[in-house]
């Protein structure tokens, strides 16, 4: 109310804060916090944390803040410890906010993340995707692939594509490509593994390998190798039978190709 005089906006904010939470069809009252995924949290954080921005500017710090996520850059570890203690005190005493100690630390820029991104350790650092962001995508892909053995690869790809397309659009600012290449390769291997499991019998595997272009001798030798599905999905016979071009024809979104295309459009 110190910042906004419009009573209608204040009333709307209060209704947001007092709205209940629905879990499994049951509404329960909200004791604290804001609705997850709504527009209220960034609005309130910007209203409240403008004071933090002004304080950091007054102290001459280089910083970057988005909503309640903030990185402050200093020249030494000792300076970082002093700033962390000082800003934590400012937030608790001046703004009456609690700093999340588990997520707060003094570290090198490449050891931390900001909005899913991190930096390389080079003298001229590049923007890269944070390891935790890569891990979350892998977990999401694994979740989608859990029920993939009972359906076609094309149907699985159709379910995966919205996830991959949205993720690539968010991380289009990345300046490194190795992680994207590795993710693309890992995903294609997961899909080849599904194919190998679906075929089940050696004769079916050999027949499908021949249909994909392998010679009869190599197809039967590969089908009878008695190795596990994951090993076979990364072996040369499956890579030769089902290369990247095969998945491109099925419409699988390539993270590397998509980010490159989006960067060219930017």
Write a brief structural summary.
The protein has 266 residues and is mainly alpha-helical. 56% of the residues lie in helices and 8% in strands. The mean pLDDT is 91.
Task: Give a written overview of the molecule.
It is a single chain. With 266 residues, the chain is mainly alpha-helical. Helix content is 56%, strand content 8%. The protein contains 12 helices and 6 strands. The chain has helices at 7-18, 40-59, 77-93, 131-145, 153-170, 178-199, 202-211, 216-223, 229-233, 236-241, 244-249, 255-265; strands at residues 21-23, 26-28, 62-66, 69-73, 117-119, 127-129. β5 and β6 (127-129) form a beta hairpin. The longest helix has 22 residues, at 178-199. The radius of gyration is 25 Å and the shape is elongated. 16% of the residues are buried.
């Amino acid at each position: 109310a110190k910042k906004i005089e419009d009573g209608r906006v204040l009333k709307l904010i209060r209704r947001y804060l007092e709205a209940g939470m629905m879990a499994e069809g049951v509404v329960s009252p909200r004791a604290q916090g804001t609705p997850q995924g709504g527009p209220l949290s960034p609005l309130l954080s910007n209203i409240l944390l403008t004071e933090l921005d002004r304080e950091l500017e007054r102290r001459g710090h280089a910083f970057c803040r988005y909503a309640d996520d903030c990185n402050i850059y200093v020249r030494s570890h000792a300076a970082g410890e002093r700033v962390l203690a000082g800003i934590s005190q400012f937030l608790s005493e001046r703004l009456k906010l609690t700093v999340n100690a588990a997520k707060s630390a003094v570290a090198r820029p490449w050891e931390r993340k900001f909005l899913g991104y991190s930096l390389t350790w080079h003298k001229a650092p590049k923007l890269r995707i944070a390891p935790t962001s890569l891990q979350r995508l892998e977990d999401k892909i694994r979740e989608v692939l859990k029920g993939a053995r009972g359906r076609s690869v094309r149907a699985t790809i159709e379910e995966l594509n919205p996830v991959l397309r949205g993720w690539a659009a968010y991380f289009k600012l990345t300046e490194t490509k190795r992680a994207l290449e590795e993710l693309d390769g890992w995903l294609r291997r997961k899909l080849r593994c599904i194919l190998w499991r679906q075929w089940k019998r050696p004769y079916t595997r050999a027949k499908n390998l021949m249909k994909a272009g392998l010679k009869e001798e190599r197809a039967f030798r590969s089908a009878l190798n008695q190795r596990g599905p994951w090993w076979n999905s990364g072996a040369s016979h499956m890579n030769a039978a089902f290369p990247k071009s095969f998945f491109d024809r099925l419409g699988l979104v390539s993270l590397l190709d998509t980010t490159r295309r989006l960067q060219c459009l930017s």
